[in-house]
């Protein structure tokens, strides 16, 4: 089986099907119940779903029955049978028309106590169900509907009631997210829900919208991948009322976007983006009557990406900070958070340096409330300090910011009084505050006093100093405080943008991909609404108009332009309200600017001008009573605005003498903050530092010349300062970006000739730029809804939610999303995307696309083909994607068949050629052997004949000599002796000479304990072992020759060899402390969080820099992990305790057993009986036997006898067990990490990367993977017999242990197959090399042992064959002793090395 076959089968098995179960009399009123199931779902699982869905009695026993003909026999399904697999065996007509098909059904039956089935009247029940079905089709009976829909477009009956009921039911289940197509509805629960852990970040990575439960992470993921695939900018628009959760949703979106870009490799830009959020919230958020953390400014965060998906930089744009909150708060409201953080969290040293007091002692803070329930101000101040450090604020800069905040608070405590009743001049009641403010601002106390009580006016030829009136002095004081805080906020945003800026962003030629997240102030309606609420609600009107344009107007215009059949859907158009407020020249904002320019204008004249211009407009009303207010009919309802302070807030500014006072400060931070141009301030700071350095160097040079004679060093040229001005370019770039929002700077410099623009003009310019940015990107909408006005957790107020649904036009939105077409392609894009399904070289035309749709039998009601575009609904798009996936797999399988045939042909030719070579070599070898035997025989015969001839000749010569001597000699000579006497005389003659070697051989010369040996081993060196006694004699001889220490080493060597052969393979290269641990079945992993997360154990907040752990899908502190007493339900579920297939690996293991019993049993049997079987894992066994063995192992693994099954059946069941694991051995979470490691260039780096990822596996996965790899190495070592190489094993097992996640695109998963196969092959080859290296070491030990044995054998032979001299014997003993000692030393060294390794 190939890799692609396995991957396709796995996806096919995980596809979802719908089963129609007919409950009959068990559930009255229900014709059939649709149940979603997979191919591997059992009948027991389907029955559990039916019980929960139909709310049946759980005490009764139910079974499923299959009927294949009307009124025919019922086939009762076993609990382990798979209904989907049985349904797939039905005829096509029954599958295509299951509702109206009368023959093939699944019935739900009740089982009696005695085991019999309770049927009832089957014929009458079928007749009634058919009548009910026909009445439902005709509309006489209501359609069966589900209670919960995660997409409102799936509602069968669409109206306000069903819409509200569906949202309420989901909210009660803590499901706060709901889709409307691609639009996300968020209902604020006013409670933190544990659905934002890193587990969910990985869960929603690279998933299609709608495949999983709705979530804010899904929108971020879809926008991120759409940006990478389409190479087009994206934006996410978050809108809703104040208190609906927009700020928190923005934080979650930014967190997920940065997590997607990191992919395991964190960079500094992501940390700065995450740190900027708490800083902006502290300085720009405050408690209001509707929200405890309300954003009092708008922000647009644009995250810039590289083409690879990594964050390159970011940019933050802010809109209209509510400055009036600094000096005045309404009932049940508070000032900005940062003041309370500072007063509660500052140290004693900081309190003394900044002159800090309690909040009750400041006028700007003691107007209403001081605290919020559940708030920890000290912890929030520490969090703010860390966030400012992450953004890049140095400790000195932070101290300057806190000093300025303290100065603003003390400035608000200054009180005025009149000097005399007749004079209008004023004085300060508490002059003791002036030194504190002047010290914090580092200005002169006298100048501060004059600026707060008098004003300077320049007339023609003279300069007048006039005292303020009491009300004017308070206004100037408050204006100074508001302008200082606004300038500080602008400076903080500027510094954050400078830290997030990338050098490539300043290059115009560089193409930037970006995702923008808009978090702007929500719609507000308070008791007293002023200029700030007017601007905020105008911004929300513009956003609602942008939403209507994209959802209703542009889409319907596109349908009409393409000429497709479409019925228009009416919606509320708010263009008239926008024109009333902003259209020139009679818009309310333009009339406000005109009145602000007239010195004599009042609030009443402004209201009169509104009446004259728009008295007949239906979108504006004026109260009947004489009240200085007007009413605007917004899209969200009517709002009354009081005109008091409209003109003042539109032109809120400081006088020039106040600006001159601040610019005279000795604090460079305050001077730079007041400066209008950051580039000029930066250059002036460098120039000032340069001149100070020059003066200091010149003074030092003069002092040096006075001491010693010499010349002064030359001055530093100005060109050397270019290195310090490299940052000027980035400052210019940021200045140009924020030029439209220089509200504070323009109002601080009224001495300029050009009059500064008003607040409303600046705000309109900001909105126009925002709309232009949104218009250039593809939008995603997130609609936030406030669940209740009391901010109570999980409280659903029907009237409040319904009002928000109405004014946002959600009913019309659902209707157009339900009847519209969610996917559209141009003809060329359609052909490019689905070219695999289309004929080759097809022309992208309307006729060809129509023919293609008719060919695949697509429902005509769910698609339309226009003039230039194809419109398809989401369901049909998914069907086309499935067809595309199947066709791609079919072509892959075809290529694999051709490739296999080519490989087989090549292998056959190679084997044929090899056979011919072997035959020719064998014939040549046989011929040479025959010739050699003939030559040896001839030589032997010649030698034997020569010996016989020589012996015969010598005897003849002796006989001739004896005869001649007898004939020639005297007769009295002694007669010849007998041979025995001759031998005696010869012995006597040689007694006086040196003994010959033969005589010496017969002497009893003893070396070691040879004399104790058996006789046959002393006298003959070539003994043949013919019995057990001979073998025993040889062993006794060797034991006497080998020293006891040597025998100890040999025994150690044999024991070490046996141990190493079974426990040689280790999967890791070096022991590393894993971060993944297990406790009570829970798998937890050390991590750090980037957003506020609460501990699931102790309910306290986990801070950004704290070390924490992920406990399954929950988050907790690292110290709380081992405190959990509850056991993991995934591992200790009693219902699944006996199962072996399709369960989590952690269920099958324990502390005592690291590897599942099934794995050990199957692998041991295969290694004992199938190690040399050809194609052990390539061939498949009988399907019935496989199913039988699997059921037996799943029910009772101990009583299964594997000897009853073929070895290929056992191997197939083992592969099925690996494929059925919910999480494979090399886990879905580490899939991308393995692919990234395989993408490295050098092999050494690739190996190191793969093993580092393996180190991250849990203990259970790692132990099982070690056992599997060791088994594969043993299989691969016998490649010559079983024909299973490392590559073949990797092709078989890579889809089993390194599967891609189900959410991966099919084409992408096909491209990753080579990487996964290469990864598994790399691991097997590396471990096989280690195995061979250890075996080589063992072979070296065996060689040393054999060498010692051969040496001892030589010694024995020398003792038997020759009789040595004492000198030679001693030399031979010494050499043998030395060689034996060397061999002992080598054995000890090898043993030590093997122990160490």
UniProtKB/TrEMBL annotation:
Residues 767-789 are annotated as: Actin-binding. It is a single-pass membrane protein. One of its GO terms (molecular function) is ATP binding. It comes from the Eukaryota. GO terms for biological process: cell junction organization; establishment of epithelial cell apical/basal polarity; intracellular signal transduction. ATP binds at residues 240-247. Residues 1081-1128 form the Phorbol-ester/DAG-type domain. It is found in: Cell projection, Growth cone; Cytoplasm; Membrane; Synapse. One of its GO terms (cellular component) is synapse. Coiled coil: none annotated. Residues 1143-1331 form the Rho-GAP domain. It holds the Pfam family RA. PANTHER family: UNCONVENTIONAL MYOSIN-IXA (PTHR46184:SF3), UNCONVENTIONAL MYOSIN-IXB-LIKE PROTEIN (PTHR46184). Belongs to the TRAFAC class myosin-kinesin ATPase superfamily. Myosin family. Myosins are actin-based motor molecules with ATPase activity. Unconventional myosins serve in intracellular movements. Regulates Rho by stimulating it's GTPase activity in neurons. Required for the regulation of neurite branching and motor neuron axon guidance. This is Myosin IXA. It comes from Strigops habroptila (Kakapo).
């Amino acid at each position: 089986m190939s890799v692609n076959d396995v991957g396709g089968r796995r996806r096919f098995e995980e596809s979802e099907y719908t089963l129609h179960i007919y409950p009959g009399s068990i559930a009255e009123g229900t014709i059939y119940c649709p149940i979603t199931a997979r191919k591997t779902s059992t009948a027991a699982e389907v029955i559990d779903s039916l019980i929960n869905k139909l709310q049946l009695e759980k005490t009764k026993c139910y079974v499923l029955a299959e009927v294949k003909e009307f009124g025919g026999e019922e086939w009762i399904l076993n609990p382990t049978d798979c209904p989907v697999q049985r349904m797939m065996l039905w005829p096509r007509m029954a599958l295509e028309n299951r509702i109206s098909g009368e023959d093939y059904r699944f019935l739900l039956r009740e089982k009696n106590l005695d085991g019999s089935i309770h049927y009832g009247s089957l014929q009458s029940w079928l007749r009634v169900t058919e009548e009910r079905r026909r009445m439902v089709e005709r509309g006489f009976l209501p359609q069966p509907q589900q209670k919960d829909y995660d997409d409102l477009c799936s509602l069968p009956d669409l109206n306000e009631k069903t819409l509200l009921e569906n949202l309420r039911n989901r909210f009660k289940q803590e499901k706060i997210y709901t889709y409307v197509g691609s639009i996300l509805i968020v209902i604020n629960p006013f409670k933190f829900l544990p659905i934002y852990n890193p587990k969910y970040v990985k869960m929603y990575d690279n998933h299609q919208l709608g495949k999983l439960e709705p979530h804010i992470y899904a929108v971020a993921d879809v926008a991120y991948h759409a940006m990478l695939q389409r190479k087009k900018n994206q934006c996410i628009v978050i809108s809703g009322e104040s208190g609906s959760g927009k700020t928190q949703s923005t934080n979650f979106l930014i967190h997920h976007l940065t997590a997607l870009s990191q992919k395991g490799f964190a960079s500094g830009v992501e940390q700065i983006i995450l740190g900027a959020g708490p800083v902006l919230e502290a300085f720009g958020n405050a408690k209001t009557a509707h929200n405890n953390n309300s954003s009092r400014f708008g922000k647009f965060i644009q995250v810039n990406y590289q083409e690879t998906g990594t964050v390159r930089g970011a940019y933050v744009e802010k809109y209209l900070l509510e400055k009036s909150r600094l000096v005045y708060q309404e009932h049940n409201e508070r000032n900005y958070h940062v003041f309370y953080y500072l007063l509660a969290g500052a140290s004693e040293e900081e309190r003394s340096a900044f002159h800090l007091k309690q909040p009750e002692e400041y006028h700007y803070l003691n107007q209403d409330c001081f605290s919020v329930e559940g708030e920890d101000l000290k912890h929030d101040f520490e969090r703010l300090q860390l966030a400012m450090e992450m953004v890049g604020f140095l400790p000195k800069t932070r101290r300057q910011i806190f000093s300025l905040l303290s100065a603003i608070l003390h400035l608000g405590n200054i009180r005025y009084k009149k000097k005399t009743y007749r004079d209008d001049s004023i004085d300060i009641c508490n002059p003791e505050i002036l030194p504190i403010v002047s010290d914090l601002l580092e200005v002169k106390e006298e100048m501060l006093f004059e600026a707060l009580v008098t004003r300077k006016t320049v007339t023609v030829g003279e300069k007048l100093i006039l005292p303020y009136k009491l009300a004017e002095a308070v206004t100037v004081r408050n204006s100074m405080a508001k302008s200082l805080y606004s300038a500080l906020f602008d400076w903080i945003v500027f510094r954050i943008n400078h830290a997030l800026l990338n050098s490539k962003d300043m290059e115009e030629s560089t193409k930037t991909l970006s995702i923008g997240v808009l978090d702007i102030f929500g719609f507000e309606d308070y008791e007293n609404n002023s200029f700030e609420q007017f601007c905020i609600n105008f911004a929300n009107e513009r956003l609602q108009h942008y939403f209507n344009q994209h959802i209703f107007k542009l889409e319907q215009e596109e349908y009409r332009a393409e000429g497709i059949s479409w019925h228009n859907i009416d919606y509320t158009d708010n263009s008239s309200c926008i024109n009333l407020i902003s259209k020139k020249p009679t818009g309310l904002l333009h009339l406000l600017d005109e009145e602000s320019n007239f010195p004599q204008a009042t609030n009443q004249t402004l209201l009169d001008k509104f009446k004259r211009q728009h008295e007949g407009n239906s979108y504006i009303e004026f109260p009947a009573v004489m009240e200085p207010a007007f009413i605007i009919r917004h899209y969200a309802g009517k709002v009354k605005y009081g005109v008091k302070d409209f003109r003042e807030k539109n032109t809120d500014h400081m006088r020039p003498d106040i600006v001159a006072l601040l610019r005279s400060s000795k604090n460079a931070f305050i001077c730079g903050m007041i400066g209008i141009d950051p580039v000029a301030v930066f250059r002036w700071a460098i120039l000032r530092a340069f001149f100070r350095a020059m003066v200091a160097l010149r003074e030092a040079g003069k002092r040096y010349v006075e001491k010693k004679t010499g010349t002064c060093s030359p001055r530093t040229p100005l060109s050397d300062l270019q290195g310090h001005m490299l940052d000027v370019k980035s400052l210019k770039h940021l200045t140009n970006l924020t030029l439209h929002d220089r509200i504070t700077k323009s109002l601080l410099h009224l001495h300029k000739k050009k009059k500064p623009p008003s607040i409303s003009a600046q705000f309109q310019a900001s909105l126009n730029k925002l709309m232009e940015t949104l218009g250039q990107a593809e939008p995603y909408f997130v609609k936030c809804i406030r669940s209740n006005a009391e901010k109570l957790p999980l409280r659903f107020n029907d009237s409040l939610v319904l009002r928000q649904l109405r004014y946002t036009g959600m009913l019309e939105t659902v209707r157009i999303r339900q009847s519209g077409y969610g996917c559209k392609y141009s003809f060329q894009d359609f052909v490019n995307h689905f070219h695999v399904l289309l004929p080759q070289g097809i022309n992208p035309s309307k006729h060809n696309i129509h023919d293609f749709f008719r060919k695949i039998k697509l429902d005509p009601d769910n698609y339309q083909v226009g003039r230039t575009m194809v419109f398809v609904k989401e369901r049909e798009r998914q069907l086309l994607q499935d067809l595309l996936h199947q066709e791609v797999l079919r072509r892959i399988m075809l290529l694999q068949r051709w490739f296999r045939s080519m490989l087989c042909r090549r292998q056959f030719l190679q084997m044929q050629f090899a056979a011919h070579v072997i035959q020719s070599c064998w014939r040549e070898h046989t011929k040479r052997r025959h010739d050699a035997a003939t030559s040896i025989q001839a030589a032997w015969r010649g030698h034997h004949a020569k010996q016989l001839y020589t012996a015969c000749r010598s005897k003849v010569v002796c006989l001739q000599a004896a005869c001649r001597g007898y004939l020639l000699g005297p007769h009295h000579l002694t007669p010849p002796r007998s041979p025995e006497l001759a031998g005696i005389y010869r012995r006597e003659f040689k007694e006086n000479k040196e003994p010959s070697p033969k005589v010496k051989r017969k002497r009893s010369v003893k070396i070691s304990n040879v004399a104790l040996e058996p006789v046959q081993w002393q006298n003959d060196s070539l003994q043949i072992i013919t019995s057990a006694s001979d073998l025993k004699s040889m062993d006794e001889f060797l034991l006497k020759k080998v020293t006891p220490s040597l025998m100890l080493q040999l025994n150690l060597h044999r024991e070490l060899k046996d141990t190493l052969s079974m426990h040689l393979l280790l999967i890791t290269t070096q022991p590393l402390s894993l971060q993944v641990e297990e406790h009570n079945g829970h798998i937890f992993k050390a991590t750090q969080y980037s957003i506020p997360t609460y501990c699931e154990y102790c309910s306290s907040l986990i801070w950004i820099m704290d070390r924490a752990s992920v406990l399954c899908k929950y988050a907790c502190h690292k110290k709380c992990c081992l405190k959990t007493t509850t056991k993991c339900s995934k591992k200790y579920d009693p219902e699944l305790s006996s199962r072996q297939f399709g369960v989590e690996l952690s269920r099958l293991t324990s502390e005592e057993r690291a590897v599942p019993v099934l794995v050990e049993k199957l692998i041991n049997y295969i290694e004992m009986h199938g190690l040399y079987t050809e194609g052990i894992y390539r061939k498949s066994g009988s399907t019935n036997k496989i199913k039988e063995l699997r059921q037996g192992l799943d029910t009772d693994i101990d009583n299964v006898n594997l000897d009853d099954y073929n070895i290929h059946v056992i191997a197939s069941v083992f592969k099925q067990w690996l494929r059925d694991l919910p999480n494979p051995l090399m886990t879905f979470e580490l899939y991308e990490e393995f692919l990234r490691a395989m993408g490295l260039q050098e092999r050494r780096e690739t190996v190191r990367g793969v093993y580092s990822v393996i180190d991250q596996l849990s203990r259970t996965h790692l132990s099982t993977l070690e056992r599997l790899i060791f088994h594969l190495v043993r299989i691969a070592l016998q490649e010559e017999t079983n024909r299973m190489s490392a590559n073949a094993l990797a092709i078989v097992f890579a889809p089993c242990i390194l599967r891609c996640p189900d959410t991966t695109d099919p084409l992408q998963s096909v491209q990753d197959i080579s990487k996964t196969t290469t990864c598994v092959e790399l691991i097997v080859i590396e471990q096989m090399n280690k195995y061979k290296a250890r075996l080589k070491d063992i072979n070296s030990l065996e060689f040393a042992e054999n060498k010692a044995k051969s040496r001892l054998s030589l010694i024995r032979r020398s003792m038997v064959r020759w009789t040595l001299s004492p000198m030679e014997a001693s030399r031979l003993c010494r050499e043998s002793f030395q060689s034996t000692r060397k061999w002992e030393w080598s054995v000890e060294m090898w043993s030590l090395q093997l122990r160490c390794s």
